[in-house]
Design goal:
With 543 residues, the chain is of the alpha/beta class. It is built from 15 helices and 21 strands. The strands form five sheets. Strands 1-7-6-5-4-2-3 form a seven-stranded mixed sheet, with helices on both faces.
Length: 543
């Protein structure tokens, strides 16, 4: 008998699976779910239909993301829902207990108490380190707990829990379901335990943190298939809203993943910067890093609360964790700067000119992120058109800005849609990153390459105009159609609201195309450059 069958609430052992209509199948007439057959007037064309309780595509995508099999994963309404399902399925009211490691995420105890179970707790050490021996002692003091929740890294203290310790604890407690909550796993250097789930070891994950989908409420439980089966029986019917499913699939699309990775890296860099700066503030007695947040111990929390309220900055005070304990989420550079100002600290960096754009059409799905003020920022480009990737890298490299760009397009037809839509998305991102254009150079120009002369003139005026002079004799350079070169610059001009004049002459079409892009990058570098001033570069006082 599996541990799931041994630990399941006795009164649920004859609970049948949830009786639901079949999942939507294209090409069938669906008259089995009592739905309204007419197209809805809001919310998308399929929102009149019940969604699949466990959407196969999303389940498979999340299984791939976490390195497990689809039958080991249950998609839930955030990882909070998975905690609730575990409590409902396995805790007998008035009889069973759980163990947590305080201070920690309050939902573990909250859901257990709602279920009528007892909550016992071990504690972190005085300096918030994980104490494996203390956890085992509490678990062995009396009947075995049905559930042991280990948050790693811990919320709110940021405490890491060594995966080896979790394995040892699971082995030492064969009659307890050990739940490793890895909600902040993407912000931890420790490897995930998800690929190792078996018997009594479970893992929780969420798309709320690293993937920016807190409002969509998508998470998962990863466990042995028999545990997943019981959780499905106690789950509500059709728990996942169609818009949330669609948002998750878009967020986890391959072209989005490089941007997610860059954002996690940036948040970790900003976390380290804030920890260093706040650690030098007299009123801050201790700083602990973890997840996408810091845990501070401050000398006078009441005074800090008054200053925060006056500045319109909200933090989470955690007095039960420590006297003066406060959790600080890592925000945007501008938000972090506002936080530092409350502590009387001047930011080390000027808020960067960054922007991200997603563009989804019937032919392409594109994500692009630019960082105009970090010349050594990584450049990762994948449009599906190799030579075009090289040309865009030339723009960013010679333009002196970071660029992450990926496109999934209808290349089975040709590269036209991808090339043009990428240029539109890149131009839009540059326009957003430029903001009010205060302090920029505005104008730029550049010229020759080998036997080719490419002249590019730019005016970041806010007024789109494109002019291209030049022709090409070859149909393609690599896999890039030469006729698309003028289209690229016209699309850039339109979406970044700039005047772009390109003139190219030469004997070699490869050189001519490349010279256009390189010259554009060099011209763009001059126009993007800031003088440190705050005025608009125009005698009119506005662009």
């Amino acid at each position: 008998m599996s541990i799931a069958d041994r630990l399941i609430r006795p009164d649920l052992k004859d609970l049948p699976p949830v009786d639901l209509a079949g999942a939507p199948v294209p090409g069938t007439i669906r008259l089995d779910a009592n739905e309204n057959p007419y197209e809805p007037l809001a919310g998308g064309k399929t929102i009149n239909r019940y969604p699949d309780p466990q959407p196969p595509a999303l389940r498979a995508r999340m299984a791939d993301l976490y390195g497990v099999r689809a039958e080991q994963l249950l998609v839930t309404r955030g990882s909070d829902d998975a905690i609730d399902l575990l409590c409902r399925a396995f805790l007998v009211p008035g009889q069973d207990r759980i163990v947590t490691v305080e201070p920690t995420f309050s939902a573990y105890g909250q859901f257990a108490r709602i279920q009528g179970a007892k909550v016992d707790a071990a504690r972190l050490t005085d300096d918030f380190a994980f104490d494996e021996g203390a956890v085992l002692k509490v678990c062995r003091d009396g009947s075995a707990p049905k559930l042991l929740f280990l948050c790693t890294p811990n919320n709110p203290t940021g405490t890491p829990v060594d995966p080896a310790a979790v394995r040892r604890i699971a082995k030492a407690l064969p009659d307890t379901l050990v739940v490793a909550d890895e909600a902040y796993g993407e912000f931890s250097a420790a490897p995930s335990l998800a690929p190792e789930v078996a018997d009594n070891l479970l893992v929780l994950r969420t798309l709320s943190k690293a993937y920016g989908l807190a409002g969509a409420r998508i998470g998962c439980a990863i466990a042995a298939p028999d545990i997943i089966g019981w959780l499905m029986r106690v789950a509500p019917p059709y728990p996942l809203p169609t818009p949330s499913i669609e948002a998750a699939m878009k967020a986890l699309a391959p072209e989005r993943m490089p941007v997610h990775a860059d954002r996690v890296r940036r948040l970790l860099d900003d976390r380290a910067m804030l920890a260093r700066q706040l650690g030098e503030v007299d009123e801050v007695q201790a700083v602990h890093e973890g997840g996408n947040y810091l845990f501070l111990v401050v000398a006078d929390p009441a005074d800090l609360a008054r200053r925060l309220a006056a500045a319109g900055v909200k933090l989470r005070f955690r007095p039960k964790a420590a006297v003066g304990g406060v959790r600080v989420s890592i925000g945007t550079p501008q938000e972090n700067e506002a936080l530092l100002a409350v502590f009387g600290v001047t930011s080390e960096r000027r808020p960067g000119r960054r922007a991200a754009v997603t563009r989804d059409t019937g032919e392409t799905a594109i994500v692009v992120e630019v960082d105009l003020d970090t010349p050594d920022a990584p450049r990762r480009i994948d449009t599906g058109v190799g030579f075009y990737d090289h040309m865009l890298d030339q723009i960013a490299g010679h333009g002196g800005f970071g660029l992450t760009l990926a496109c999934t397009g209808d290349h089975h037809i040709d590269g036209h849609h991808s090339i043009e839509d990428v240029a539109l998305a890149l131009g839009e991102a540059l326009d957003l990153a430029l903001g009010d254009r205060k302090g920029i150079g505005r104008f730029g120009f550049a010229l020759p390459m080998d036997e080719t002369s490419a002249e590019v003139l730019i005016d970041l005026s806010g007024r789109p105009f494109a002019k291209f002079e030049g022709d090409f004799s070859d149909e393609k350079v690599g896999d890039f159609p030469t006729q698309m070169t003028p289209h690229v610059f016209r699309s850039l001009a339109d979406s970044m609201r700039a005047a772009i004049h390109v003139k190219v002459v030469g004997d070699n079409d490869h050189h001519k195309v490349e010279a256009c892009f390189k010259a554009f990058g060099r011209a763009l570098r001059q126009g993007l450059a800031t003088s440190g001033g705050t005025s608009v570069p125009s005698t009119k006082g506005m662009l």
